[in-house]
Specification:
It is a single chain. This protein is an alpha/beta fold. It has one domain (9-336): Metal-dependent hydrolases (TIM Barrel). 50% of the residues lie in helices and 14% in strands. The two termini are 30 Å apart. Its cofactor is Zn(2+). InterPro entries: A_deaminase_dom, Ado/ade_deaminase, Metal_Hydrolase. Keywords: Hydrolase, Metal-binding, Nucleotide metabolism, Purine salvage, Zinc.
């Protein structure tokens, strides 16, 4: 991917090494989009599912949801779920990512309930504390705008039970995602997001992923989530509101190049705009499998895009710590920087 950084080979190597060495946080990572490619192909073959129709070298927004459709068929048991999460955590730990928030909506597999899904995630995250002690991993429960309301209400009730009632440290918030062409954020406020906020549950919302969704973007900004995701297609007034409201933004460079049908990162305008207005931006992967990326790469691409010096990069990453949803870990990471 072509970047904007015009340093010498030695400067590029040094900066890439810095992007590896520097502690990182990942706040926008969908479990279903982060399978190892080998695991994805192995499971698809095992289930007899063809993936010949998928173009892994040119993943558009439509292509991303084609892949998620296959993932929904192959990620079909609690054992597979736990294996996938272990592999994801291991892969992130190898990039010196210190804190990771995964995202997923609970699913029922056979005789297993959606609560069994949540319990399985909690179990494997607890296990990962021993397997990979240098990374802390938490879960955001997904509210999927493409799913039936009844399913999302059940997901919310489970999130509330584990966050508010049981105070489970592994579940730290809600996130709103799914096909941006389906339904609207406002449809979920009365029964999910308003009561969630009243209960003290933190919320991240995919925002302005596609063009001409300004009415929805306005409603999202009126709600003022704890974090926003993407913000690709905002107008000047919307960017100003993000800055005024001081809402941190999860930015996903490789993902945006694909879903916005761009050729290079230099064509991305929303991230430089957010940065120039003083917004907190957090580099994230979104989906490592879909976009062939990792946290080192996303950090390096941010350096290239914004032409950052070392201290500027450290400042951006340190500001991002305040946006994580686990307050205890936030305090710990802040004390270490």
């Amino acid at each position: 991917m072509e970047g904007a950084f015009l340093g010498t080979d030695k400067q590029l190597q040094d900066m890439y090494q810095l992007c590896f060495n520097i502690p990182k946080i990942e706040l926008h990572s969908h479990i279903g989009g982060n399978l190892r490619p080998a695991t994805f192909l192995e499971l698809a073959e095992k289930e007899g599912i063809s993936v010949d129709h998928i173009d892994f070298y040119n993943v558009t927004l439509k292509g991303a949801f084609d892949i998620f459709a296959v993932v929904g068929k192959i990620l079909n048991s609690l054992d597979v779920l736990q294996r996938v999460i272990r592999e994801i955590v291991e892969d992130y730990s190898k990039t010196n990512t210190r804190y990771l928030e995964l995202r997923s909506g609970p699913k029922a597999f056979g005789e297993n309930t959606k609560e069994d899904y949540i319990k399985a995630v909690v179990e494997v995250l607890e296990e990962c504390e021993t397997l990979f002690p240098h990374i802390t991993v938490r879960l955001l429960v997904s509210i999927n705008r493409s799913a039936p309301m009844e399913s999302n209400l059940e997901a919310y009730e489970l999130a509330k039970k584990y966050i508010v009632d049981e105070k489970c440290k592994y579940i730290v918030g809600l996130e709103f995602s799914g096909n941006p062409k389906d339904n609207s954020f406002e449809d979920y406020c009365e029964n999910i997001f308003n009561p969630a906020r009243e209960a003290g549950i933190k919320i991240s919302v995919h925002t302005a992923e596609i063009e001409d969704h300004h009415e929805e973007t306005e409603k999202i900004l009126d709600f003022k989530p704890d974090r926003l995701g993407h913000c690709c297609y905002m107008n000047e007034e919307e960017f100003k509101r993000v800055a005024e409201l001081e809402i941190p933004v999860e930015v996903c460079i490789s993902s945006n190049v694909g879903t916005m049908n761009l050729s290079t990162i230099s064509q991305i305008k929303h991230i430089p705009t957010l940065h120039s207005m003083g917004c907190t931006i957090i580099p994230c992967c979104d989906d490592t499998m879909l976009f062939n990326t990792n946290m080192i790469n996303e950090t390096f691409e941010l350096v290239n895009m914004l032409k950052l010096e070392e201290e500027e990069l450290k400042s951006i990453l340190n500001k991002g710590i305040d946006a994580i949803f686990d307050d205890e870990v936030k305090a710990l990471l802040a004390s270490e920087t």
